[in-house]
Amino acid sequence: MLGTLAMVPVALLVMVVMMGTYTVDEGHVAVTYRGGALLNTLAYPGFNVRIPFLDDTRQVQVTLQTDEVRNVPCGTAGGVTVYFDKIEVVNRLSADRAVETVRNFSTSYDKPLIFDRVAHVVSEECSTSSLREIFIEKFSELDDRIAGALRETLERWAPGVEVIAVRASKPRVPQQVKANFELVEVERTKLLIARESQLVMGLQAETEKLVAQINARQEAEVANITMAKRLMESEAQRTISAIADEISTARSRAEADNEHYRAVRLAEANKRRLTPEYLQLVQIQAMANATKVYFGEKLPSMYVDRTSPQPSLGS
Predict the structure, then answer these.
(1) How many Å apart are CA 308 and CA 315, to the nearest integer?
(2) What is the mean predicted confidence (pLDDT) over 274-283?
(3) What is d(CA 91, CA 52) in angstroms, rounded to the nearest whole number?
(4) For residue 80, which of 126, 41, 125 has the smallest C-alpha distance?
(5) Which of 33, 50, 121, 274 has the fewest CB atoms inside 10 Å of its own CB, making it the most exposed?
(6) Which domains are seen in the chain, by residue range?
(7) pTM (two decimals)
(8) Nearest to 135 by CA among 100, 182, 189
(9) Backbone conformation region of residue 273, classed left if phi is above 0, alpha if psi is from -120 to 50, else beta
């Protein structure tokens, strides 16, 4: 009996030690409430101690986390209500501002700051937009609008929470309305295809026109080059002919000059040669060549026939 009583304090001591120690998971910090009041100290990953029965510790995540806001209603300006099945908000709490954020919004800070704010922003966007704008035209901008509104709110009320990204699913609309949208999109697609076909045909025609202009320009340039070549050839041929004519004229002039020079020189030579003595000699030679001598018994000793014509001086 005494042994059992002696074990009671030991058991109480072990229980107090176990209740006074706790662990904090990686990626989290722990805030401590003592008697209901939030302390300004943080506990970090690993083993930590607390006062049993007085301290209440709660963990908050300080790494990236994704909050999923589900089944968000969207009442459009036309009176049609659609629903977003899921809007994901990727956010992170700064460890340095964890105590401040928890003191202002509790450990469930993401409910008023993210969940409620997302529903409010979606309601504001839908109330001023038609179903077509929400479903098609403005849907690509909705993520950025929600993220911008969240950042503006958090910067003012909870600067320790950072919004990284927002992803909204396609709104869920009634099947009949969806069928009408799909039909409209089919017709829009046909219209776009027709416009694109017209554009392509116009571009093809413009391309063919440009090609024709380029070909015509090239042909004109080739014709100009060919004509210039022919003109140059004709000019060269005329130059060659003119040079040939000048050579022929010069040759004829040289030949005429040679003949004239030869005649002048011959006349000068004849003039020097036809002296009175030379003319007398030529006359005597001519008389000698033309004199006939007859021999016979009844003739004089010599008979000179002077009836033969006298040779000319130039012969």
Answers:
(1) 16
(2) 74
(3) 33
(4) 126
(5) 274
(6) 1-61 (no CATH), 63-173 (3.30.479.30), 275-315 (no CATH)
(7) 0.55
(8) 182
(9) alpha
